[in-house]
Amino acid sequence: MDVQGLMCIPYWLMILVTVVLLLLMYTLYKQSYFRSLGIPGPTPIPFLGITIDIGKKGLHETDLNLMKKYGRCVGVYLGNIPQLLITEPEMIKQILVKRFHDFTDRPHTLEDAKFMDSALSLASGEHWKFLRSTLSPAFSSGKMRNMTPLISRCLERLICNGKKMSENGKSAEMKGLFGAFTMDVICSTGFGMDVDSQSNPNDPFVVNATKAMTANLVGPRVLLALMFPDFQRFMRGLPIMDQSSLEFFKEATKSVLQERRSNPSNNYRDLIQLMINAHKEQDSNTEEHADTPNIDSYKKRGLTDNEVLANAIFFLLAAFETTSSLLTFLSYCLAVNQEVQDKLRSEISKELGKSQPVYDNVFKLQYLDMVVSETLRIYPPATRFNREALVDTEICGVKIPKGLDVTIPTYSLHMDPEFWPDPHKFDPERFSPENKDRINPFTFLPFGAGPRNCIGQRLALLQAKMAIVGMVQNFRFQTAPDTLIPPKLDKGLFTKPVDGMFLRLEAL
Ligand code: HEM
């Protein structure tokens, strides 16, 4: 092209410049969101927002720095997606509990395979209400009590494994040890499967769960979705979760379903049986129910095959990473705080002696509860969780437009020195009966809060408490030359140690 006869600009260059300008306008428009609302936050990098910081420092440190610099209500961009980070307890209470009807759903920041939309955590509106009310009875205290013998069997193997590891005097890797235990518990309490991943570190359940939880989260597919959130629906064909592991779990769940249907007389007490019982044959393959807008039509039906599958898989993945991390950090905190470990051992031997931990006794151990709570405060397994504003609204004077992703950065909340003096210090006394009443419940949220909190909380605590009691009865956790103090945390959404956690187990 001849511009005023002065120079010749090739068409391809003109097109390139136009595309770059349009893209720049797109990102500048997207990233002007909080400026117009008057909400403080860091100047975003075009297209990337705070993702470079997260890549360099990790989510924990990035969130903490943001809170320190901008306060308890910060506007950030994950790529081009605006997120409001809130660590103000009164605002959190309004969002999670008081004004729940305006914040019922989770934002679909990353749209994955359509099949997973039926998982409780990702479902929206009436569909979520239907799933939550159908699945909640499976997690009642009565059902958990019934699951105790299944957990006890896995605990026996954990102790056996620990004994083998203690024999050579070398350090043992705790994430692997507790990861395998957690997987055995999920397989038996969830699917009635007797998987012995503790004896087989390459067990396909553990390998695939690890793969599914770490897959592609820093890959180009995720980056593209964060940069162009308006075009996500066109990217659904490109999955985020590792497809081979998803297929593995689908097939495993399907074969359990088939077996249960062909052998209906067996009296199973696991989660999948409870889901099957909530399943009505006539609806089993009608996926369009998922879009039915009316709660009354949900009342008339049970769970579809798709819903049973998606939720079984999600429970397995949600439970694996979180519960094994809690146990890993519990063992670490006990190893570096021997006086706490001694006090816990005294409580256990006074209340239980050498008898097996079960549902009715572990929940009575007061000091154990304090130790578990303090571990969850310093190392919350889920670094963040979020909600979506369903209407234009205002909370504590902050304007929140419809569609905004409202994120609670749990780690930053738990590290706020105003609520938790000397926040890095491991001090279970913060949760003693005298001190507990002084804690604002919206400053301690390892399992979230309100009607959409963690449905598996009771199962996670039962399993973690039984495991730690069994381990403390049989071993002393000790640091070793290769124990990293403090541990280096993974940069992602789950709080876990990078490259494992090495401790010495001394058999008692
Ligand atoms: C220490 C272990 C665990 C921790 C720290 C944890 C943490 C969380 C958190 C923070 C949330 C979000 C809550 C909210 O938005 O208010 C959540 C949701 C959820 N968790 Fe857990 N979790 C754990 C174990 C489990 C287990 C064992 C299961 C299932 C067997 C499970 C299943 C779920 C599900 C299905 C949701 C979504 C609930 C909904 O949207 O209605 N979690 N969890």
TrEMBL record:
Xref: CDD domains: CYP3A-like
Keyword list, A-Z: Endoplasmic reticulum, Heme, Iron, Membrane, Metal-binding, Microsome, Monooxygenase, Oxidoreductase, Transmembrane, Transmembrane helix
Main location: endoplasmic reticulum
One cellular-component annotation, GO: endoplasmic reticulum membrane
UniProt GO MF annotations: metal ion binding; monooxygenase activity
Needed cofactors: heme
Domain of life, source organism: Eukaryota
Presence of keyword Metal-binding: yes
Transmembrane segments: 12-29
Binding site for heme: 454
Its membrane topology: Peripheral membrane protein
Cellular compartment(s): Endoplasmic reticulum membrane; Microsome membrane
Function (record text): Cytochromes P450 are a group of heme-thiolate monooxygenases. They oxidize a variety of structurally unrelated compounds, including steroids, fatty acids, and xenobiotics.
Family to which this protein belongs: Belongs to the cytochrome P450 family.
Alphabetized PANTHER family for the sequence: CYTOCHROME P450 FAMILY 3, FATTY-ACID PEROXYGENASE
Protein name in UniProt: Cytochrome P450
